[in-house]
Specification:
Distance between the termini of chain C: 51 Å
Low-confidence stretches of chain C: none
CATH topology of chain C: Fumarate Reductase Cytochrome B subunit
Mean pLDDT of chain C: 95
Structural class of chain C: mainly alpha
Order of helices and strands of chain C: HHHHHHHHHHHH
Bound molecules: iron/sulfur cluster
Chains: A mainly alpha, B mainly beta, C mainly alpha
CATH class of chain C: Mainly Alpha
Shape of chain B: globular
Largest sheet of chain C: none
Low-confidence stretches of chain B: none
Number of helices of chain B: 2
Largest interface: A-B, 53 and 57 residues
Oligomer: heterotrimer
Structural class of chain B: mainly beta
CATH architecture of chain C: Up-down Bundle
Number of domains of chain C: 1
Radius of gyration of chain C: 20 Å
Largest sheet of chain B: 5 strands, antiparallel
Amino acid sequence: MAEPALKEESREIFDEGLNRGIEKLTSEKIEQVINAVLEDETGARLKVYVDTCVHCGLCSEACHFYVSFREPRFSPAGKVKQTLWEMLKKKGKVSPEFIRRASEIASTECNLCKRCSMYCPFGIDVAYLMLVVRRICHKLGVTPQYIQDTAHSHSATFNQMWVKDDEWIDTLMWQEEEAQDEIPDLRIPLDKEGADVFYSVIGPEPKFRAQLIYQAAVIMDAAGINWTMPATPGWDNSDMCMYTGDNEMMGRLKKAHFESAMRLKAKRIVMGECGHAFRSIYDMGNRWLAWQMPPIPVTHAIEFYYELFREGKLKIARKYETPVTLHDPCNIVRGRGLHEMARYVVNEVCEEFVEMHPNREHNFCCSAGGGVINCGPPFRNKRVEGNKAKADQLFDAKARGAKTLIAPCHNCHGGLEDIIHHYGLGLELKFLGDIIYECMEKGQGSEM
Amino acid sequence: MHDSSNWDWDIGKKQIADIGKWKDMFEWVEEPCASPDGEKVAAVVKTGDMEFSVCQNGAAWENTFDKVWHLRFSPDNRLAGLVSDMGEWTVAVDEQAWESRFEFVWNPQFSRDGSGITVAAQKERKYFGVINDVPWEKGFFHITNLATSLDGKQTAAAIQTVPFSEGEIFKFQEGCYSVAVNGKTWDRNFINVWDMAFSHDHEHVAAEVRTSLYDYTIAVDGVPWNETFLSVWKPRFSPEDGSVTAPVRIGGKWTLARNGKQIWNSSFAQLWHHIYSPDGKKLAAIVAPEFGKWTVAVDDIPWRHTFGDLAADPVFSPDGKRVACVGKEKEKWTVCVNGEPWNSMSDMAWKPVFSPDSKHVAAKVEKNGHYTIIMDGQALKNDFEAVWDPVFSPDGEKILIRGIEGKGDDAKYCREVLSLKK
Amino acid sequence: MQTLYNFVSGPLVWLSFMIFIGGSLYRLISMAVLAKKKDPLVYVYMDWYYALRSIFHWIIPFGSENMKKRPVMTLVTFVFHICLIGIPIFLFAHVILWEEAWNISWWFISDPVADIMTLAVIASCIFFLVRRLVLPEVRYLTSYSDFVILAIVAVPFITGFWAYHQWFGYRLMLILHILSGEIMLAAIPFTRLSHALFFPVTRGYMGSEFGAVKNAKDW
Ligand code: SF4
Ligand code: SF4
Ligand code: SF4
């Protein structure tokens, strides 16, 4: 197992967005922006969190970065110390270099996974504080290049991957045709008004993982679901603007998403296996728009599969034989409590399930989430080495027989893939949908 | 609206199509659509291996296509679909395919009277707006948010004017997007351009724009307002004087601005989808007076009744005296007129429709998997397996119901005119 | 000496209680008002059931995962807080003072027990001090104010213990004891000791978010 090898190098990571971002900064500008954000956009929560923290360090062990590097600056409160405490103490009088570092910490050394809120006796929300830091850095124009580019894509195309309107529809038609080779009367109904289910995915699906759309269509078909997918922008439920601190864009994206479902008069939104997108729709974006809860109910894929199996709408032809273990994605476990449903589904489709430890709400983050993987190659090593904790967890599950790792979240997939590779774990990585598709009885319930 | 006075307004029910039998005629039948006058019902049908057509009132179009989608009736009762033939895409209207061909077409829109049909199109990686078979002379790297004027003779869209590669974040931030109206580009670039609106005389276009990552405003014919805001939503032109209004965000709250100046005194947790009364004298909008409470505000004053889940689809009565919207509370939908919600709750409610004399409001609703029309709070008729928005006669004395009765093989599509006179 | 004693045990007691009570109310109310203005969502998502559920798990020893992982720290923390709050209220000498002044009294703890508890507080303070100095992740977060606060908490117990045992200079120690106790009381609202005031709020809010919205536990 590789040893944590970080030390000073992180200070030298070159990132176009950070390095060029601070070029134009003046100390007046920094001071003005920090104070404006703190004054106009934060209030009692931030103050109480900062005043209440007793500097006890009990949150440290919660964070996979700290657990992996054993360096205090990677502890949750340590990250707050290096960023917000300093900004507050100096009343915003900090240097451009400080901002660069603050942005790097908030965007690439914290996954906003909220595990630390379960370890801090006071429930101090370090993820929220890191989002405030990201917001300040966004307002100063100092955000890592790759994720900023993604935020730009969101703003220009309403999806994460610069997918053009026609390319999206074309992909759906192509997946429909492919799937028809297997199930001749399968449809991916586009823009169908009044369907029960509005199915939405994240930008990378049409771009890199189109087979997931294919699989979802097969599942919908077999379960006889009255469903649709939108042929307009608003199809992408993902949201990197939430993670760059561009809250206005986050709101705009979520408005487009919900309004596509509302325009089609769908009863609920079912989304693919993605964690951060769920957080964006269920927790963050809706709030920015003043919807207390999502205006159209949102069902994550895990909950949807659970329903389909519970109601007998999906049947398994033969169970998946390879022993599996399950990564609990923070955004739908700490963010929605779907862990038991996930286990139910896994047990429905798999012969042998090996628990990972710790698990459920206490699972360690994959270190890709919170937009960290979206900050791209410059920060890849830090992210992977910063999650030796996960590697240990996986290694232990493997030692107890697991051969396949199920990660029902896109970002987790990306992150875990890197971890498996870097630490030579040799586990096969799958979505729950991959396994269900592989094992289910197909082409049963289709109805027009 | 299309002139509906020459439609069949005789009281009574007419069965138009034995739609349940279509399944035996084709490999599959997709979800049907009905013409506004109720005389026609159509659906995309599969006629053979990778061969699609359209069935209207029981008869299939002669031509078949590789693919047909987005089949809709225009306001003047013409049937339009997006079709692909030998790998080329175009629009087919009442069986006639357009001459112009593209690699892809999408987002079709109709003018108010139905005479104009526009669509977004892509050919050789260039993007166009197309108006009644005539594409813009110039294509662009990318278009989105196609908008069509009320007369259907003009289109505008957000376009990319400056090429950049992925990852060029600083170039992007210099502004690479603008608006093209009928293919002619505005002089100025913006960071982003979103929703657009045409003026009522079809001459002017207003758009939501972002002039830096942080500054939002409205640009009219390429000229941004002097004021910038934390965010904005879709602008609209006043039918009365051609001024432009838009929801704007100031200090974390939303309000309404005209030509850059705040015109409503109240501010809201949310304000969007503002609409003008037909005479242009009144303004209404969906608002959240408080976080998580939704209603409509008319001329700055929110209704007292609020919904917890959402309020949407606001519409003015033709005389401008009433506003209706749909609202949702605890997963149940209803219609709300001038702040009074109907008692009847449903699983879904569609945008309410006012009668031309403003006396009645009716809406399509879904309850327990069946559909019906509710008028002035009362369910009008039996349940349907499918139903379309109700249509009032020009004098407001009759209502046209278009629906499918019976299930499976017995499904019949009918139109029925009912008298509203007691 | 006597005048000084009279002063610290008379007007200063009043003052310190006033600062403590008034200051605490001020902090809590001003935060509530600020939250109403700036973070109104806190009120929307606060849920009593889930708030209490979470608080409950965090006020019983070993009620949370992290407490189970650090048994020594958990033990020390609970003993410390129980003694810290228990001694001032239930010490015989204090109860007598209340009785003399207001003619009210309540159950008290026997002196030998109080002695042990006081030692426990002092020992805990030493434990916290050592922890702060030795554990890198704690030292990293530590600022001077943390030592000052620790001292504010420790001194009343050290001096009280000293005075009770009537060791050398105990009269002075008694005065110092009263004075330091007053300082501690007055410091609660305005230093990080206010974590005592805000614990129910921050924990309750996190409990509400996790429980009511996210359907998960936060302990
Ligand atoms: S990565 Fe997770 S545990 Fe670590 S500081 Fe961020 S939110 Fe807390
Ligand atoms: S556990 Fe909580 S109080 Fe302790 S240092 Fe961490 S954030 Fe601060
Ligand atoms: S990517 Fe997965 S594990 Fe990681 S933060 Fe998201 S949900 Fe958590």
